[in-house]
User: What shape does this take?
Amino acid sequence: MKAALRNPLLALTALGIAGCATPREQCISQANEQYRTAEAALATAQTNIARGYALHSQSVPYTVQNTCYRDDPNSDVMIPYSCPSTQYRTETTPVPIDAANERQKVAEYRKILPQLRRQAAAGVQSCIAQYPE
Assistant: This one.
């Protein structure tokens, strides 16, 4: 179920948002985390089934040639030199899926979502009691 948390950008965004939130908001966000993760995984599995394949994203390095300059110790002239830098781009490629396995995931998520929703609601109520406005 932690598949949605595999994306580091999402995790960093969540941390960034949590840093600006009040203690109550942080508590509520944490109380809802498992439910949101399961919902996202359900949506991903349903999308994979509808599309017929999954998408795999990966960061791929590439080199960019730049020109840098340094002072010539014998004159006031700047000397150019090559200074390559590595940058990254995200490539997304289709990946075959086992449709039966994806349908099984959908069934499992649908089965556990009501329980996770109840747990999240109880957690939110606890947060509201712990951090009244």
Observations:
- The first strand starts at residue 53 and ends at 64.
